[in-house]
# Entry
Amino acid sequence: MTKQDIPTASNFVAAIISADKKANKNDGRVLTRFPPEPNGYLHIGHAKSICLNFGLARDFGGLCNLRFDDTNPTKEEQEYIDSIMEDVKWLGFDWEDRLYFASDYFEKFYEFAVFLIRKGKAYVDSLSADEIREYRGTLTQPGKESPYRNRSIEENLDLFERMKNGEFPDGTHVLRAKINMASGNLNLRDPVIYRILHASHHRTGDRWCIYPMYDFAHGQSDSIEGITHSICTLEFEDHRPLYDWFIDELDLACHPQQIEFARLNLTHTIMSKRKLVRLVADGHVKSWDDPRMPTISGLRRRGYTPESIRDFCDRIGVAKKESTVDMALLEHCLREDLNMRAPRVMAVLKPLKVVLENYPAGSMEYLDAVNNPEDAAAGTRKVPFSRVLYIEQDDFMEDPPKKFFRLAPGREVRLRYGYFITCVAVVRDEESGAVIELRCTYDPETRGGNAPDGRKVKATLHWVSAEHSVEAEVRLYTHLFLKENPAMVEEGEDFTANINPDSLEILENCRVEPGLADVEPETILQFERLGYFCADRHDCTRRRLVFNRTVTLRDTWARIQKKT
Ligand code: ATP
Ligand code: MG
# Structure
């Protein structure tokens, strides 16, 4: 890439990289990384980080590594590693052969620690965890030095080696950096860099019983890989002096630049993995990829497309200030994408039987239906029409209020791609009195949807032929949390108090067009007038159709924008 080709910066991180490239810093190289800890599934917040890191690499002619920050064996699992790789790929990004694990560097980290001890910059402390916390001081009070702080280098080397050899139980000793117990930055008050943990690691097994802390592992991993720009979220801003301290004290050749940006927060959503784990473990949702989850796999199962998520991440931008994005924007991006590509079909979620009294019994015909009005190339299909149909229960009212224009006794409406029909009688259940069937007539002159005499109707309804349609289960989802900010709770409650008990409604006896009988899992469709629906990735089979409602057609975001 020549200097003229360097793209204009679309955000402040890009501006930094652009300037570095122009100044030929790092010999013009750009290498970023996405560094998830494999202690849960990725969520939409991670998508922001993925799009940013891989996107910058792409825009500036660089590369992006995928690195698992797997330094905490008690919380990490292979299942999470697999899901993270699958999700990053599905989002459309490729780390090629650059898949790394912090655990691959455990030997190096150990050498780094020994190097610091020899330099007099690290010591073994034998205070308890509580004492260490107490000695650390507060924002207003300086910390106190540990009585073990001035152990000799030899004693430190000996103790550290014996820590590694498994001679001590968990919690008896830690290795700490020797920086400054009076620093205004708490992260510099002799942070712990190694702890004893007799736990099996998912990759290194029982080889190690001491594990590096995040701050010690992260920057050094960046440096080992030759990362140029280490992009992370704002909570690490106060850790940056420590990040730099380690790399400087270790005399490492590569000194990546840490840059912090504001994490994504979404209304009606929690993003902390600790809380997401609880939703799954406590059964508030069925799985990590439950379509109500803000996880990438949940969004995928719900029917979100990678394109819509990438578009969303582009639109929210990258800033240095915390904010909360309205979920309606995410849905808006999805609708824009699906509107262009989702085939239209007819499905009746709550069927009401309609008998056309003047349509010949035993006969049927095929009507032409448009597959996608936004895409002429999608063509048309044949939909069977016959004497007995289903329409939506909500499309009929016996005693309609003023603004209800759909079907009612004596009223004429249009059936989509079909005929005008008029309701002539209502059949009730003898016991409950509920309407169970409508008797209607159709006007054969109106085939295709227009009357030769020019008469108008005020509503067009979707429908399916009773005999030809196929049964399906449809799962309707709404927000998992009632409040915009699920963390807002009364004293003594936690975020689970805001869980919406009605976030899932299952409709078992829906009827869909016969063309959907062999729909492939993950197919996304628009059910006309109802919304976008996706054939469930796991549960939809040829024997049992299952659709998830991805999003309704109503676009609240467009309305919010109009108002402002
Ligand atoms: P936790 O939820 O347990 O605090 P985490 O979300 O920080 O963990 P990591 O696996 O460490 O989980 O995250 C990997 C990367 O994704 C990090 O660089 C982190 O800064 C970034 N990231 C995490 N959450 C968000 C978010 N909401 N918005 C943007 N980036 C995020
Ligand atoms: Mg993290």
In short: DSSP finds 13 helices and 27 strands in the chain. The mean pLDDT is 96. The longest strand covers residues 420-428.
